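[User] I have long wanted to understand how a fold can be written as tokens. Those tokens are not coordinates but codes from a learned vocabulary of shapes. Could you go through the record with me and say what the backbone is doing? Thank you; the sequence and its tokens follow:
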Amino acid sequence: MLGKKPYKLYNSIQHYEWGTKGESAFIPDFIGIEPDDKPYAELWIGAHPKLSSKIEINNELVELRKAIDDYPTEILGKRVCRKFNNKLPFLLKVLSARKALSIQTHPNKEQAEELHLSDPANYYDNNHKPEIAVVLTKLDALLGFRSYDEISKNLNIYPQIKEFLGEEVISNFEQPVNEDAVKNIFTGLMLKSSDEVALKKCIDSIDKAIQQKDDISKDERLFSILKNEYGYDIGLLAIFFLNHVQLNKDEAIFTDAGIPHAYLEGDIVECMANSDNVVRAGLTPKFKDVNTLLKILNYDKSKSILTPEKIGDIINYSPPIDEFKIEKIGIEKKQQELSTNNQVEILLVIKGKITVFTGDNSNISFKKGEAFLIPAVVDQYTIESENSAVIFRVLIP
């Protein structure tokens, strides 16, 4: 029997090499543990088969995905069960990067199904992965393609890239200018990435030119950092083709299928459709799939900055998808009454301590760094904080 109450989620950490380390590691401080010498990259909160959270049911700690299999309607709700085939449709993460993640994109649903069928070792599931990142401290990222004019300007600043690409690719980019110009030149760049001798020559030449400058640009500073971290990687040249954005606390970005992006540094709350499908092409020692990436890229010039809507103490982040939306709720010494509409919700405390009251007159407290699930059998619940608290609430539109 599933109780009408919140369930604490016991979550796990991914120790990817790019995560923050030591005393300055964000995730250990956030969840209240002592860090060791491992990098702390991602805290996973959800029911993904690769790393499911756990909950306690009938005095037994079980994986959330198994609990959903056993109690689909009670946890998810009838509408969610019908629409998402008895699966939790989203995955929540806390991500903390001290160095660049891979330049990557994600497939749409149809592409994900094809990739999983043809290459399940590298594409673990058949789902798409639209995702939103809400900034906790700061975020430095590459996101989407620059305009034709910006790319053309960079090619003139760095003739080494022109030489690397070759006369034919550059000629097609410049004459005539057409809607596929950015696609064509970026395709040429990525396909040339296998020429290690030419790539090394190009990167060394740009690096030497930068070192001779007294005043370097933001892109040049990033180039130098990435060269130190990744050596002769095509990602160093890709930065001159992608938008370099810097966001502050509470700002957000949404990356739909095909949008190239790479988080460079920062701490975020990230939510995505329940998938781990990533197509990588640079700044990584992991599996790269250049041909797939070129096939599915979206060359929309939009930077995908998501403008939230603030109503009272609630900031709404509503991406144009069916799987999830996020609310950031501030609670200042008062009660906040919420309704689930008989659908599952996951909440994460990012500041302070709260107490949750449900219809069976029970109450459970949660502190900073803890996450909990409100099952669909709970219709109404109340959150109370004696002082000041902030929570993220993930729900299904």
Q: What stands out?
A: The radius of gyration is 23 Å. The CA atoms of residues 28 and 35 lie 6 Å apart.
